[in-house]
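[Automated response] Your request has been received and processed.

Submitted sequence:
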Amino acid sequence: MILQPKIFDTAKIIAAQSTRLGGISPEPFNSLNLGLSVNDDEKNVWKNRELFFRSLGVELSQVSRCYQVHGDAVLVVDKPVTNEKYDAQITNKPNIYLAVSVADCTPILIHDTKNNAVAAIHAGWRGTVGKIVSNALQLMKENYGTDGKDCKAFIGACISYENFEVGEEVAVHFDDLQKSFDSARQKWFVNLKEANKKQLLDFGLRTENIEITSYCTVTNNDTFFSHRKENGKTGRMMAVIGIK
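Generated structure:
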């Protein structure tokens, strides 16, 4: 199973988020683990990556992947990279497919339909607070002339509002509309999807041009990897976007 956004023009763009289904890795990485940093056999991971990207019509040599550090920095990509320390990438070059790795954090994919430029963003709570979506869009504006009204975006499967329980030290960084306090549990809950959606809206994207999947990596753990649900012993999905 592959999660494919409906918001994008498939004649111009390839975009998808992988699930945990359809690969060859054994438990606890079963089965389509795409992450090399989780102690899965490296041969399994490369085979899984080949299975996923080939299903999209993408060669591994066309995939640009960064070493994610839960920051807010954005890389302008002119050729595929493999180990740069960034959590978001942008490009206007065809046949480069920008990929981010997730297992609870929020993947955001963006297409500037006028200038034909794209972004792939990994937004954990730190990246969200650091406004990594806003940073990516601003860099797209500076490099490609991107305007919010011309963009479409997909917010993929991540940990949901109901399951993202945090302490006050995290909750304090979020607006009141993006969090709530459970007095019985004495815990805060934060809505990462809405927090990142707000950054899209603030840049000028129209609500109808933002697709948000209802899938949650915790609730739908049979379909998606969840670092929190599985106590860190799990695999990684990827979200990818590129210009044909």
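Summary generated for your ticket: The chain has one domain: 2-160+207-243. The mean pLDDT is 97.
If you did not submit this request, please reply to this message.
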